[in-house]
UniProtKB/TrEMBL annotation:
Record protein name field: Nuclear receptor 2C2-associated protein
Pfam families given in the database record: F5_F8_type_C_2
Family label: Belongs to the NR2C2AP family.
Family annotation (SUPFAM superfamilies): Galactose-binding domain-like (SSF49785)
Species annotation: Thryothorus ludovicianus
Superkingdom per UniProt: Eukaryota
UniProt GO cellular component terms: nucleus
Subcellular localization(s) per the UniProt record: Nucleus
Record-linked Gene3D superfamilies: Galactose-binding domain-like (2.60.120.260)
Coiled-coil segments on the chain, per record: none
Source organism phylogeny: Eukaryota, Metazoa, Chordata, Craniata, Vertebrata
Protein encoded by which gene: Nr2c2ap
Amino acid sequence: MPVEPLVCAQTATRVSSVLNRDVKRFGKQHLFDGSDETCWNSDQGTSQWVTLDFPRPVKVSQLHVQFQGGFSSRLCTLEGCRTGEELVKISELYPQDNHAMQISFQVQETVLEKLKITFGSSTDFFGRVVIYHLGVLGEKL
């Protein structure tokens, strides 16, 4: 099966925080808008996260992410589940601290309806994370 983007207009997205609560400039909508001029910018804290609730079951196989250098995460933990179940750990990823699109993250294929990506161990002293692009790819079931 070909790999395709899984995030669509019906995907419910939540984030841990937004810098200065300025949702218009730094909100979650910028994770998927395809613009190099916008980003999700978290507020400070020890770990930041993004959750995605897909409208139907999906099989996640890849994660693409573009951080702002100096505001990335040394460790990304992926958890997922089906509706009504508890989140279970899928994998841990170790991104680089740079501004390049990182597309080499192969994920253990898992069927799920909810995905949580936790960004722990930020490279920023205050724990902020800045993401220009987030891509979740796989197969829609």
